[in-house]
Queue: 2 jobs
Job 1
Amino acid sequence: MIWSIIGFSAAVLTMFSFVPQIIKVWKNKHAKDISPVMLFQMALGVSLWFVYGVYRKDPIIIIANITTFITLVILLFLYFFYGRIKQ
């Protein structure tokens, strides 16, 4: 039981770790401080964790990484959207 709580807590923290960055980029209308390499690297890592979760049939791993991937896609969209705006 304790391990499920630890796993769930880690998943929640990870799932929403990019939300503050999304809010900052949205609010400031620029993403000049964000590394696209880091975003792509995280997207690849999260994708691999998802595959691992499917292999293990672990819903916590699967849901956490789908949610994290979605937040990464939003941040990538904002990065490229605001990167095209001249300031």
Job 2
Amino acid sequence: MISSAIIPQPLARLPWRLIFVIVGIAGIGFLTQYSAAGGSVRPWAMKQGITVLFFLSVAVGMSTIREATIKQLAFPAYGAILVMLIIVEAVGFVGKGAQRWIDLGFIRLQPSEFMKPAIVIVLARFYELLPAGDIRKWRAIWPAVALIGVPWALILIQPDLGTATMVLLGGVSVMFIAGVPLRVFLIPAGVLGAAIPIVYQFMHGYQRKRIDIFLNPESDPLGAGYHITQSKIAIGSGGIFGKGFLNGSQSHLDYLPEGHTDFAFATWVEEWAFWAVPC
């Protein structure tokens, strides 16, 4: 908090340290996308900058919302996002083999992204309403499992394993922090671990391929493992001191796929070296 007779109190109360950290991280992203485009703000850096400023403004605006209001909106917001996930399954936009978006014409919404914070908020509200003495009882478990399981299943069948996993981990984390007994987590984890070979057989082909390549990217260096292999080459080529801003050969010569998004880390490290990673 900044205290000053000159700065208006609403501004002084903002978490400026957090805002500066966010702006700093966003700045690194802006520079990386600028470099990946060959030293141009188009097509990625300018769009990214505008998006960050917009949502930072939204976040600042949301910080003025009273806690009581957020609590009141927790369940309605969760329900609305759940309805959107059902709409996605019914008439959602299909792209790159997945059905994850609602096409509004001027924008394509991906409701699964909204579910990430929503699942945390709604479970926090649920456990706040639950009597403290019931935290170790069955009534503290099955509603939470239902609140997590329904959106998790809807997102998984899109298919979007990554986002479904994030929703699951977010919900389970809230349950753990709320004080749900440890055995509730250990038993399903043990069952899941034992069932991995069976689950693997029922995964989509692209999901199995991702696991195989993660374990052994060199098994297909020119095919499914190409992305990971080239990212490792980019990171290694930066050496100790890096190649310098705008001098990354892997990204500029198009050896590094998606150097402005999925492999932005490799683009950054190749030019700035590992010493810049903590920055």
